[in-house]
């Protein structure tokens, strides 16, 4: 049973010149250390926001003087911007290997995309979602009948769990399955193709949250046979407040616009009763009311081109080597426990969460930053049910995303997440592994205190 159709067959190479990181902004930024001096910043928080590719920044800078409002202007800059915006839509469709009739809607983020789809669900739609999802996938379905599925412990169990749940549903009503492609907590790849097959066999549709998958692996709507895919620009090396919802048009066209306003409306007239009659667009513009984020859309298209031209086979091979470096280094520290659903052999992207015995997670992350210039994430990663399950905590136990209440040295219901990608230098992950080893062995060199729910160096 294949884990996912997105797993590329690549042979890792030891030649770092061949697998060099892609140039990103901030790669030469230095930050001060509390112990004195400064160091080049190691950005290892890609799962939250990846740095912009230099290629993306250069493309945006070249376009910026020609910026204009799209679709509604006769002037040269407006026409140029309109062409650029619509070409970006086509580029994204190619990047995702969309079907000819699929729509590409530009949004603000994955969260925005899934909320848009939630607003477009047919009446009586039942939604199936695993408790392992990011809150962007877990929470938007407030107006639907939602069935939350327990965390599976193997990819096969995930498929079997979904099949059982779908078999018990009303076979005549609409249904939607929402699933992640790669976990934002463990980095593990999910069996998307098999889950899509199970959904369709029971008359349901499926939406793929590709926020953590698209930056690391190729995503083919056709090969995975998903109905929709959502992702964010800020995780795809294009951090300009943009996102994508791509897929089947029928539910989107049948629904009222996500936002009402200019751009979504094709014709507006006054009625005899004094009211207003509106004829909405049937294209993607139906859900893109207002002046769209042209630069955000263009930056996503630029990132799609850059990743495609770099070759996912090469990017995947290099990332696997970085993953092996981190996991092997953490395995050498007995006090470290890596969090996992599917086990050590599960295919994954460059996202790894762990806890350290005897350490408050916020304290550990603060020490990595202040003493080593390493940026990671600590907390529940906006996936509270999943992290609680992985930590073996009671579902009602207190703990907030990124805001632990425990003081340094006290236990907290939180974990530490290190994440990396196409722009990560080898030195950054090597420094991280060395820092973990030293902190566990020698302790922090500085004193820390809790301030506004965060652990910070004491001054």
From TrEMBL:
Cofactors, names only: pyridoxal 5'-phosphate
* Keyword Acyltransferase among record annotations: no
What InterPro entries does the annotation carry?
Aminotrans_V_dom, PyrdxlP-dep_Trfase, PyrdxlP-dep_Trfase_major, PyrdxlP-dep_Trfase_small
List, for all copies, the residue spans of the domain called Aminotransferase class V: 44-432
Gene3D superfamilies the UniProt entry points to: Aspartate Aminotransferase, domain 1, Type I PLP-dependent aspartate aminotransferase-like (Major domain)
Keyword annotations for this protein?
Pyridoxal phosphate
Protein name per UniProt: Pyridoxalphosphate-dependent protein
